[in-house]
Amino acid sequence: MTTVYLGLGSNLGDRHALLNEAILRLEAEQVYTIRRSTIIETAPAYVLDQPRFLNMVIEARTPHFVFELLIRTQKVEREMGRRKFIDKGPRNIDIDILYFGNLRLHTPHLTVPHPLIHERPFVLVPLAELK
User: Fold this and answer.
1) Dihedral of the CA atoms 73, 16, 40, 36 (nearest 10)?
2) Nearest to residue 23, comparing CAs of 127, 48, 34, 89?
3) Domain ranges of the chain
4) Fewest C-beta atoms under 10 Å: which of 8, 23, 28, 94?
5) How is the chain classified by DSSP, letter by letter?
6) CA distance between the termini of the chain
């Protein structure tokens, strides 16, 4: 089992309920939550003309390797109705792999640690609670 940190965000619909639903769905995908950060409300970044976000980070354990974890997080997003119309635009759920153990990886489809952590207070603040 590998310890992972995932960033979760939502700015459409019942944001609290969607974050909780995502965590339950991740559990069903063998991503077992150990700890949750506080949920924080943040202004949108990058695309500013959209609703405010609720963001959090979870620390979890999983038997999956990083690419399988990516497939499963994307499956949860898809099953929850996530649609990408605008890059970094509004979304009901967003799940990002922030850290996967001590793995350092850079591929066209996935970079771990997440390459934008340093510029995202909506990730840094909840992550600091858990790290």
Assistant:
1) -60
2) 34
3) 2-130
4) 28
5) -EEEEEEEEE-SSSHHHHHHHHHHHHHHTT-EEEEEPPPEEE---SS-SSPPEEEEEEEEEESS-HHHHHHHHHHHHHHTT---SSTT---S-EEEEEEETT--EE-SS-EES-TTGGG-HHHHHHHHHH-
6) 18
Write down the pTM of the prediction: 0.94
The CATH classification of domain 2-130, taken from the options 3.30.70.560, 1.10.1200.10, 3.40.630.10, 3.40.50.720: 3.30.70.560
Tokens of 97: 């792999």
User: From the CB of residue 115, how many other CB atoms can be counted at a distance below 10 Å?
Assistant: 9
CB 29 within 8 A of CB 75: yes
State the sign of the Cα–Cα–Cα–Cα dihedral 83, 88, 93, 98.
positive
